[in-house]
Amino acid sequence: MSQIKKLDIVRFAPRNGEGFYDTLKKKVDAYFTENKIDPHGNASMVAKTVAMVSMYLLPYLVMVSGVATNLWVFYGLWLMMGVGMVGIGCSVMHDSNHGSYSDNKVLNKYLGKIIAMVGGYEVTWKIQHNILHHTYTNIEGLDDDINAGVFLRFSPHSKKYKMHRFQHWYAWFLYGLLTLQWATIKDFRQVYDYHKKDLLKKEKLTLRQAMLQLSLYKVLYYIMLFVIPIAITGIPWQNVLIGFLIMHFVAGLALSCIFQLAHVIEECEFPMPSDDRKMENNWAVHQLMNTANFSPKSRIMNWFIGGLNRQIEHHLFPHICHVHYKKIAGLVKQTAYEYGLPYQEQKNFVYALINHGKMLKKLGNE
After folding, report:
1. In this structure, are residues 352 and 44 in contact, taking their beta carbons and an 8 Å threshold?
2. Handedness of CA 250, 253, 259, 262 (dihedral sign)
3. In terms of DSSP H, where are the helices of 99-227?
4. pTM
5. Which of 131, 215, 229, 354 is 20 to 30 A from 265 in CA distance terms?
6. Under a CB-based contact definition with an 8 Å cutoff, are residues 68 and 347 in contact?
7. 10 Å Cβ neighbour count for 321?
8. What angle (nearest 5°) sits at the alpha carbon of residue 155, between those of residues 153 and 161?
9. Residue 294's beta-bridge partner residues?
10. d(C-alpha 171, C-alpha 151), whole Å
């Protein structure tokens, strides 16, 4: 991560009031107004929240109850918790921290903190995702989602090493370590880095406050995931550790694939600013050029991963709850075509996964 005092931000081209996004926004606003629909969550969102949280907590409660004495059943419960982590991350925490879950800001705030229950920290997540990724999508040096350190190369503008020739083979293992990094060192490193870049101020926190809050979250997390299972079940710590790693590998691999399929593919542009730090396109057009959907017709994907298979709609309207993406997708697609802009869509998850693998290979060999 770049060790600079403040972000060397870029400026997008201005909107003219009659362009793509202005036209689209009027259409989307009209859809909600005419149909008397709240753009936030609804009853189905509440039901989904209960389902996703249960998918994580119920296996945990069964595990600590001591019922699962068979080791394979014990590991299976951890695996189910990993699936629950994905559901919470995509379908609950994500909307809450975007402020789109509810029109009640307090509810959004505290539901967003549910990320601590799965090993993360909402402050660093919001800075990396809401501010850096959503604003500067696929821009090298600003979008932390494509800053994967030395082992992975996600941008044609990042430094290339010889080992990247093989990244399309080993990337999948590293993807499985994503949430494990959150639960251990990444959040601490990001708190310090975002403090240096003056980004903690946006969350109204000092470095000391953020570090104390983060440390408390981590202590409580490890008490829940390690101390309680070992103390109550009597299962050796080595087996608890293996289960913990299984859970994180499942969650990390799934979440990495879900997010990378939307941006690290050959169709995306990865543009760079001019010498005076200006971008050629306005922000909305930039999002279209660097974002793709996948599995648009899959009911399972639409439900389980919180509409994140429709990343185009999410990037253009992050303040709208994902339960509405399917309905507004037609408006987005139609308006993009009206203005001669791309609407990048991959037919299913497997196709998108293969496409991402090809991009990893291309970036490693170019």
Report:
1. no
2. negative
3. 105-112, 122-125, 134-135, 167-175, 178-181, 187-196, 207-222
4. 0.93
5. 131
6. no
7. 24
8. 35
9. 346
10. 8
Contact 356, 261 (CB under 8 A): yes
Contacts of 306 (CB under 8 A, 6+ apart): 90, 91, 92, 94, 95, 322
User: Quick one: which of 275, 265, 290 has its CA closest to 341?
Assistant: 290
Question: Is-contact 152 167, C-beta < 8 A?
Answer: yes
In the chain, the N- to C-terminal Cα span, in Å, equals 23
CA nearest neighbour of 84 among 109, 130, 49: 49
Q: Is 90 within 8 Å of 321 (Cβ atoms)?
A: no
DSSP bridge pairs for 11? 278
In angstroms, the CA 86 to CA 84 distance is: 5
Compute φ and ψ for 206, nearest 5 degrees.
-90, 170
**What is d(CA 114, CA 85) in angstroms, rounded to the nearest whole number?**
10
Condensed to tens digits (0 to 9), the pLDDT of residues 289-301 reads 999 999 999 999 9
CA 252, CA 148: separation in Å to the nearest integer? 14
Q: What is the mean pLDDT of residues 59-67?
A: 92
**H helices within the chain, ranges in order?**
20-34, 43-64, 71-88, 94-98, 105-112, 122-125, 134-135, 167-175, 178-181, 187-196, 207-222, 228-233, 237-260, 283-289, 299-304, 311-316, 325-338, 349-365
**Tokens representing 217?**
């979250």
